[in-house]
Amino acid sequence: MSDLIQWPTDAQFEMYMRDFQHLNIGDLKDIVCVVDGTELKVPRPSNTKIQHEIYSSKKKQHSLNVLLVTLLNGKIIFIGDASKSHSDQLLWNSSDLRSRFEGKQYGIIGDAVFTFNRLRDETRINAETPIKKTRSKHVLLE
């Protein structure tokens, strides 16, 4: 039964912080989790309204979106319900995941679509999004 997907206890998270310490560099101090959404392809529904609701123009397919949280070692600790929403941020906002990090030292990282600490949030959580690098243009001087 230890292979079941379950949210770790605070004591387990503290253990993971120690175990993952070598991975935490700079602003990533005490980050133990990664969050991202993934689109799951589904057959095209016969109902036209539903077809439009679940069509992903990004993936050019009918799909549902699922939010996943893993530990830095790849162990899955949360799988959200499949949703018609193709926005990872909307799934994050509608879940109770943020509250699980409030008042905790351990933190989470996600890609650039996530805003973990919004202006209206009363408490801040330990969360990071990477800074997207721009492509540098090299000029050759002769």
What is the strand and helix layout of this fold?
Blueprint: H1 10-19, E1 31-41, H2 48-54, E2 55-56, E3 61-71, E4 76-79, H3 88-94, E5 107-110, E6 127-128
Parallel strand pairs: 1-5, 5-6
Antiparallel strand pairs: 1-3, 2-3, 3-4
Number of helices, where a helix is a run of at least 4 consecutive DSSP H or I residues: 3
Helix amount: 10-25%
Strand fraction equals 15-25%
Distance between the termini: 67 Å
Principal-axes shape call:
globular
**Sheet bearing the most strands, described?**
6 strands, mixed
The ordered H/E elements are HEHEEEHEE
Mean pLDDT: 82
What is the tally of beta strands?
6
Class derived from helix and strand content: alpha/beta
Based on CA atoms alone, the radius of gyration comes out at 18 Å
Your description of this structure?
With 142 residues, the chain is of the alpha/beta class. It is 17% helix and 24% strand. It has helices at 10-19, 48-54, 88-94, and strands at 31-41, 55-56, 61-71, 76-79, 107-110, 127-128. Strands 1, 2, 3, 4, 5 and 6 form a six-stranded mixed beta sheet that branches. The longest helix has 10 residues, at 10-19. The radius of gyration is 18 Å and the shape is globular.
Summarize, please.
The chain has 3 helices and 6 strands, in the order αβαβββαββ. It has helices spanning 10-19, 48-54, 88-94, and strands spanning 31-41, 55-56, 61-71, 76-79, 107-110, 127-128.
Keywords:
142 residues, alpha/beta, six-stranded mixed β-sheet, 3 helices, 6 strands
